Amino acid sequence: MTADAERARHFAVRRVNPFEGVLQVVETRNARAYSPNGEVWQVQVLTQRPDHTWRSFGDHAPIEQFFNFGLWDADGGLHRIPANPVMDIGGMTRAAAALCAVLQELSPGLPFELIDRYECWATDYQGRPVALLASTEDPDRTGDLHPRRWQATRLVDHDFVSASLQAQGIPPHGDLGPREHAERLERQVRRLGQHKAWFRRTADDRGERLTPTAGAAEVRVALPPLGLTRDWDLDIERALAEDYIAWLAPRLLLLQHLDDDTRARLEVLACRQAVEVAAAYRLLPRIVDRERIDAARVEARLRQA
What we know:
By secondary structure, the protein is of the alpha+beta class. The chain has helices spanning 3-7, 89-106, 163-167, 180-192, 235-252, 260-270, 274-280, 290-304; strands at residues 9-15, 21-27, 31-35, 41-48, 64-73, 77-80, 118-123, 129-136, 195-201, 206-209, 220-222. It has a six-stranded antiparallel sheet. A five-stranded antiparallel sheet has the order 8-7-9-10-11, with helices on one face. Helix 4 crosses helix 5 (235-252) and helix 7 crosses helix 8. The longest helix is centred in the N-terminal third of the chain and has 18 residues, at 89-106.
């Protein structure tokens, strides 16, 4: 490994609330890149903001920030986007080129290790985790982050359809809007998880409680491995949660802490969405049934041909 690659920081973090997968990140001293699929990377470079050049008076220190510089992939290299000509284009180009060389070297090691082990959960009246609200790698940020209420999908995403609700005569586009089924699941979570608490995920994938929660008795608790509890009182509530997990399965396969039984069950569910499985393939940390996954990838190629 080159010296630049050794100095670079590389890791992965989850995209949560709503859960949208795992983001791969590479950072050098003055540039960074991130990718949701391990193939196309958004490259950003740290440089001085151009507005400082227009200041004609006062003692203003230059302000540095990250600017989007281009997209990189292993086959096509760096595709630059236009930048303000008053910026240090030469310095930005050198920083981006050094980062891209590191990306080329580190990409075969994907996926990178997940580091966001501090997790904020909506909890029930007994302090048990219900739904994952936020995660971070920095314990000092847990007091500053104020996660919003849990979301099953983005507000513009109308794709989640629950077969169980449809069987009950509840359409996916109804009185609650175009996200009828997602909204019903979100309300279900809010009814049960009315408190919030931070946990540190331990090596055995349990949660060590960092903040007090009303009714909480245990310091260490089991964290639902898929970000949502499966322990619901009513059959229709359990069925709705299971439908959601099935819909989310291709992205859930990107989680690195799953045991083989859970992963095998998710692989069966995920392969019903072959295109999504193929898109996530490069970042799968482990495969239980390779023949099943390979068949899904073949199906995806045929669908996209």
